Amino acid sequence: MGFAVVLIAIAALVGATIWVLAPAEAARTEPVALPKSVTSAPSLPHLAHDSGDRLYLTPEASRLAAKDGLLPAGIKSIIDTTGQLKYGQYKWDTVGVPPGKLKIRVDLDRQLISVFIGPHEVGTAIIVYGANGKESPRGHLPILGKTKDYHSITYDAPMPYSLWLRSDGVAIHGSEVTPGHATNGCIGVPTEFAKRLFELAHKGDIVDIVGDAKAG
Hints:
By secondary structure, the chain is of the alpha+beta class. The chain is built from three helices and 15 strands.
């Protein structure tokens, strides 16, 4: 039962619920407090240690999060969003993160993109994605190329900082990220977030797109 509670709490950290974490002024060397409704659960392993804007997961919390599909395997830290992100918002923090392999994960069910350098999350944002009939692809997709300034002729729409995922034009790119907005299969992210990701990503880097969600 304790493990299930930890997974719920980690889900809150990656945007799946509206629970808010402990206040920023709490002692930064102590384990992050869980929501009051679950702090009494027996045998709770520590969730994470707060270090400013970053939360360091214990090995057990990381394993459980990966098992439940909340995070890729082996993640050691995630960005503290101090609550659920809103449409158009993003967080980006590379301070203190050592060089490592870039990993990009898109979770359609939670409408989130997460960017990792090695085992550390450095960026996260709310996304928009493909609507019924033009669903976003799922799978393990390599970046085929990059275009900084692109305008879709087909849809007469700007696609700044495009990272191409398929030959039919599907990409991660800067977009209007608002409630009810959908794309024609692309993954739309806030434009400033797209710029930061564009600067970091290279051809051949892998984007994992997971989830069963279909925009209405």
